[in-house]
Structure formats: C-alpha cells, structure tokens
Amino acid sequence: MDFPASFALIAPELILTASGLLLLLVCAWGGDKMARPVAILAAAALFGAGFMLVPGLHFGTGPDTYAFGTLIKVDSFALFAKALIYLAAIGCLMIAPAFFNSEAAGSEKGLRAEYSVLVLFAVLGMSIMVSAADFITLYLGLELNSLAAYVLASILRQDQRSAEAGLKYFVLGALASGILLYGISLLYGFTGGTDFVSVRTGLEGDLSTGQLFGLIFVMAGLAFKIAAVPFHMWTPDVYEGAPTPVTAFFSTAPKVAAVALTARVVFEVFGGQVLAWQQIVMFAALASIVFGALGAIGQENLKRLLAYSSINNVGFILLGLAVANADGASAMLVYLFIYVVMSLGSFVALLMLRSEDGHLYETFADIRGLATTRPVIAWSLLVLMFSLAGIPPLLGFFSKFVIFKATVEAGLVAFAAIAIAASVIGAFYYIKFVKVMFFDDAVDVVKGKSGNAHWALLILTALIVSPLGYLMTQSLTDLADKAAQSLFVAV
Amino acid sequence: MDFPILTTMMLVPLAGAILCLFVGNQGDGAAARGIALASTLATFALGILLWVNYDIGGAQWQFQESYDLFAGFSYALGIDGISLMLIMLSVFLMPICVLASWEAITKRVGEYMAAFLFMEVLMIGTFAAQDLFLFYIFFEAGLIPMYLIIGVWGGDNRIYASYKFFLYTLLGSVLMLVAMFWMTATAGTSDIPTLMEYPFPEGAQTWLWLAFFASFAVKVPMWPFHTWLPDAHVQAPTAGSVILAGVLLKLGGYGFIRFSLPMFPEASADFAWLVFILSMIAVIYTSLVALVQADMKKLIAYSSVAHMAIVTVGLFAFNVQGLEGAMLIMLSHGLVSGALFLCVGVIYDRLHTREIERYGGLSINMPYYAIFFLLFTMASIGLPGTSGFVGEFLSLAGIYQTSSLVALICTTGIILGAAYMLYLYRRVAFGAQKNEDAAAMSDIRPREWAMMVPIAAVVLWMGVYPESFLAPMREDIRVLNAQIADAAPASDAELDAGTPRDGMANAIEHEAEGAH
Question: Which of A335, A380, A420, A466 to mutate to test the interface with B (most CBs of B within 10 A)?
Fold first, then answer.
C-alpha cells in the first residue's frame, strides 16, 4: 500500500477532519462567543477542501483512483459529488447565523459554536460516503453523516418541534441503518467480501435467494436515506420541525451524498444485475414523483411543502438511475446540481420571510400578495418555483430535459411518458406559490430586514436558474459526463 | 444579410421588459408605458425591415443564425415565408396591445408591460426557432407571462381561469416533449429543416403525431379541448385576449404546418378523418354556443374556436388551396378577432361590463366606433373585400377537393357566423338606446383611433390584395404540398372528366341537313 499516494487522494477529507477537530477544541474553550469565527473558519475549511478538488475536476483523475487498498475510490464521480456537497454546505453555513441570532430561534437565541462543527463532520461523512469503495467505508461515512445530522435537527433543544424532528429522524434513521447493515451482512455472507469489486464478482450469474435479499435490503436502506417513496415518511416531519437552515442543509448536501452513494452502489456493485434492481428503482421513481406531488397539494406550511417537493425531485433523479447507463447517470448529476441550487434558493427565500422582530413566517397565508410588498423576494421565488416545476426557459427545465432525454434514448418511452405526465401534478402546487404571492391581496406582514448573505445567495441562485444558467450547461454536462463515465470504466 | 436581425428583434423587447421591471410604477406607470410602446414600435420597425429584406422565391430558410451556446440543443434561428408572416402578425399586434392597456391597466404597470414584452420575445422565438428544443422552450415559456397576465390583471374569476389555462396547456405539451426526444434520438439531430425531410417509420408516426396533436389541439384549440379558452379570454384583460386570440392560438396551427404535416405525412393522412370530425363538430357546436352567449368576450372566444376549426380542415385538406387558405385565415383571424376584442375593450373601459344587454343603440352616440365594429364584424363573417373572405374561400375550396361533405358542413359555419355576429352587432350598436349610461358614452378617442385604423387598413388590404401576404408563403406551401402529396387521402370530389364535345356547347344535334 502506497501511503503517500493514498493520503494525497484523501486530502480534502484530511483537511475537513483536522479543521473539524481543531474547531471543536476552539468551541470547547471559547464557548458560544466564538460561534461566528468558528462558522467562518468552517466555511473556509470547506472552501479549502473544495479547492483540492479543482485539479482533479479540471484535468481528470490519475490512473490510480484507489486509496488504502480498495477502501476508498477517488474518481471523477466522487470529485463531482464532493464539489457539489461542499458548495451546498458553504451556502448552508452562510445562512445560519442570521437565523439563530434572531427571534426565530426562540428562547435559545444565538448561534451555537458547535453548529458549524457538526456541519463540518456531516460533510466529512458525506465525503467518505461518495468515495466509498467498500461497504465498511460506506457505512462509516453514512453513520458519521447521520449522527451529526440527528444532532443538527434537534439543535434548538428547548423547541419542541426541533426536538421531535431530531428524535423522529434518529429512530427512523437507525432503523434504516439497521436494514442497510443487514443487507450488507447478507451480501457479505453470500459473496464473501465487503469491497465492491469482490461483491460484484460474487454476484455474477444467477442470484441466489440470499443475495437477492441482500440486494433488496441494501436498496431499501439507501431509499430511506434519499427519501424515496415508500421510505419517505420521515421527510415532511423532519423538514418541518428542524430549524430552517438545517432543513436547507438536509435538502441539499446529504441528498447529493445519498444519491451519489446509491448510484455508486447500484452501478459498481449491482452493475452486473441490472434487471434485479431496475424495476425497483423505476417503481420508486414513479411513486416518488406521484406521491411527492400529491402530498404537496394540500400543504399550507411552506417547509412541509418543500419537503414533498424534494420527494418529488428525488423521483426524477431516480429516473436517471433507472436508465442504468452512463447517460442516465450523467443526467442525474446535472439534475442534482440544478436541484441543489433551486432548493437552496427556495429555503433562503423562506428564511427571508421574517417579521419586523425577526420571527419566521412559514405558511401560505403569510406570503399573500408578497409581490407588491417585497417584489425582489417574490420575483426570485417565482423564478425558483417555475424552475422547480420544470417550465422553460428556466434552468429547472434543463434538468428535466436531460433526465427525460436519457430515459427516452434508452428506449423507456412509455415510462418517460407516464413520468412526465405525472410531473404536471407537481406543477399545480408550484404555481400555487405564484398565485398566492402575485394574485392575492397583500397581507404585508413580511417586513423584517435580511442580511447580505441572504440577499447574495437569493440573487445568485435566482440568476443561475434564470435563462442565463443555460450558458453554463455545456461545461456542466461535460463535467457530469466525465463523472458518470468513471462509474462505468471496467470494474 | 449578416446582421443577426432575428436575435435583435428578440433582444429589443427583452431589454424593454427588463427596463420595465426596474422602473416599476414610477410616474403612475408612465415610464413603463413609454418604454413598452417604444420597444414594441422598434421591434415592429425591425419586422418591416425583415419583410422588406426577405427574398421572395429565394432560399427556403433565410436570416439563419446558429450559435453553439447550450448542451443538448443549439440556438438556431431562421425563417421561411410562413414564419415571416406570423412574426409580422405578432410584432404588428404588440404596439396595439400596449395602446389598449394604456389606460385600462393602472396597477403594477411595470410588471404588466414586462410580461407583455417577454411574451413578444417568446412569440418571435417560437416562430423563428430552427431547433426542435429551442422551439419547445419558447413555445412552453409563454405559459409564464400569460399565467401572470390572466392571474394578476384579469377579471373576477381570474384564478380559476389562470390555473386552467396553465395546467391544460402544460399537460398538452409535455407528451410532445417525449415525442421530440424520440425523434432526435432516431434522426440524430434536432435541426427542424432536417427533421422536416426525415422519413420517420410509419408505425412510429402514429404515436408521434398523436403526441404532437395533444399539444397543438389544446393550443388551437380544437373541440373538445377548447374549454380553457372561453375562461381565459373572458378573464384576461383586453390586451391579453388580443394576444391570446391573435397570436397564441396560431401557435397550434403553426405547429401543425411546421411539424405534424411535413414530419408525419402518413399519420396526418391517417388521422385526417379525426381532425375533420372534430372540426365539423367545432364549427357547428361552438357557433351555436356563441349564438346564445350573453357575454361579448365569450361570444368572440367561441367564434374563435369555430374559425380555427376551418383552419384545421384547411391544413388537413392536403392541397395547396387548403394550406394557403388556412394560413390566410390564421393571419386574418389574428387581426379580426384581436380587433373585435379591442372593440369590446373600448366599451368595457367606459361601462365596465361585457354584458350585451347593457348596451344598445351605440351607433347613435358612438358612430365612428360603430363603423369600425361593423367592419370587423363583417370581416369576421367573411364578407368579400375583407380579409376573412379570402382565407375561408380558399380553405373551403381546398377541403371540397378532399371531401365535399366536410366542405358542406363547414360552410354552414359561415352562415352561423353571420348569425351570431350580426345578432351581436344588432344588440350592441342598433336599436333603441335603452340604457342611459350606455347612451352617454363618448365616441372613440385618438388613442383608440390609433389602435383601430391600422388593423382596419390591413384587414382591407388583405381582403383586396391578398397577394402581398400569399407571395412570401407560396413557395414554402408548394414545397410542403409536394412533400405530403404522396400521402394525401383519396378525394371524393374529383369527378372523371368527360371528353369535351366538338362544336358549340348549345348546339342541338339535327337529324340531317336539309331534311326540311
């Protein structure tokens, strides 16, 4: 084993680990008054780790992508996913202080120092997840991420909803981890290995019942992590209960990590048994699109609605996975990128719906007539919502465009037709946003000022999803193609 | 010409729209109105430049531009005669729409004008797009501004109407998108001119045709997919109705002539009966429905469905007359129904009701208004000398060659059209002045003259000398007709020609010379 080379490959993770531990010490001695410097340093650490990815993304990875034997694989796919995760996490760190330092945080006003450190550790977990090449590494990353996430969900300890969200997330997440672990143990038992290559070799030929069960359990555990129907029940509750910046975080970075992980597992481990999982993914995709859309229709709470919207979006992402080729995987990555931008933008907009004394508004009734009172927020939300609905000429259309293109080109025409018709149901609640903000009479309760970080992120995300975003589609698809190819090189 | 005129025509209103968004309601909207009028007039001037420079009988596709900007599809523009005429229609109606909203819209003027200018960008883009997906983007993007126009500045029931409009049209067009993916995967390109000549296998054509039909039939709209139209028209502000009737309905017809017919000729022939049946029902049924309407806008909305049905039979007649007639009706209907909505708007602005019963005897106190209204009523009926006649005559002559029965039934549409339009006109403009407030209304003002006169002039021009409008399209329609001729369904009206007889036609055969 070539240690220097291995360490060079995991440089971003090393940066995250070291800075996470150091900042934890700063928290322990400095207390909450160090919260702001810690947040800035954490963002800087993420930026630094992200910077380490640039050469690999730009020039391509070297011939040897494995680190520490077959434990970790740093290929273009991992780099793409990591870059996206770091960017999303930086965005989520930027929006947190204003929320926690206002009345919105209730009796626990004030950003706590460990918040940023927890984000850092969650990101480290995700980083390990997306470059796992062994089920043990996978589980390690997944749990590191999940444990940090449970704490983040309940970071407002005095707030009942936050505590409830954290507990629900923990109980259901532990169950899912158990299912996943059981699946892994079955696969280990029936193939004799835990690293992806040997499990894949062991699965060749006809699947035995034990192997099939292992595969199903692993898929079920992963479906829980990405919140695909029928394992989605926790999402609306957790998203609604968790503090809004944490919800924004949940709907972006961990989603990317879980989807990327799922893609790697199904292609690298189960790649030889496409027929065994393709139908499962197809079902989950269609069911997520339909139930996500139907569930969202009756919602009055905006965070809950966005939770259903994220389930709906996961359905489209899974469409790309169901295609089971490099085009589908590339489409999936493009979709993920655009989804992260839209999701982050929507949550930032929600964070800006505050009263004069800083309380957050969360329901449709509060944003009536927003277009006349706060036109910039309303227009940005309009762009984001039409984009989420996939209406051209906004960038959200491009994400659906690549997904459906890959689906149809792979010959799944009927499947694509059903999915695209179901997407119209989703349009209904996205345009409800616009209806409430633009058509209804103003209630004019949203009066609070928002910080520069919020404005900057809102304007940036709105500009990216505006038609201007199409100008970067070429480089985006190039990167995604390269990343997707790396999943399919001879394993 | 190297100057990218099509892109410029889109950039001018786009810049206007962004400016309008930023000036907002400054000076009670005066700034936004001024910007909107200036940019639509500038676009119209560019449109005239486009028409003047269009080389009739030259290359099929002119003013082509292509830039490799996006992944998966390209930014490719170019026009033929058919696109040219429809672009002209759009840019001609836009300044009139701005004028029509001059006083009627008082709240959020900047956003309103921005929505209209975005709409103009998208309409020009739709007609000029040479890439399948670029077309789709422009085609579908129109939903956003129209949704806002109906929802924010519409009537009492605007929310229902805007939802219905949005979801109906969206559902119609997403299936078309799947079909487009299949086509580009099969043909290996998304370039429209190439695809127009690509022979798609006959079995697949059926499905592709149906997917495109789902989208265009909703847009046209054909019976029974028309129910969104009366709602949208009635609730939209005047200018919104003008654009909806004038240009957006033409997107459906344009879709048939640009995609369905040339790309899937065999399927088009196979499904011609379906189009004929739906169109025949539309002509009779919606005309009868129009007859009993108490709301002026609704009446005109239903009449639009009937007129567009004659467009669809003309398109699927598979001959030159039918195609030319369909194109001319589209242009004429764009002007005439737009003008009729303006006429309604003029009196709506004064009395704030669209109910026919509330008016009466307007020819006494508003004589000039009555003249314009009469002219457009006659044009809608299809009186010779107005634009309506030329298109309907050609279209029905075309369909007669294919099916005399369809021609017979569709011709009753003209009689019914006369019935509901004249009945409307009699109740509004003639008779006693039974409502005092209606009798006190003032005649049209200079701004309203400026809206009516240009349309009236073009309606007469098209009625008297349609050659100006047919000439740019002639070659394109000939090419299209040649392309679909092989698939043309059997005709029932081409009788076997007998041998002409010698001698005079009235000669009587005599038994023998000199027998008497």
Answer: A420
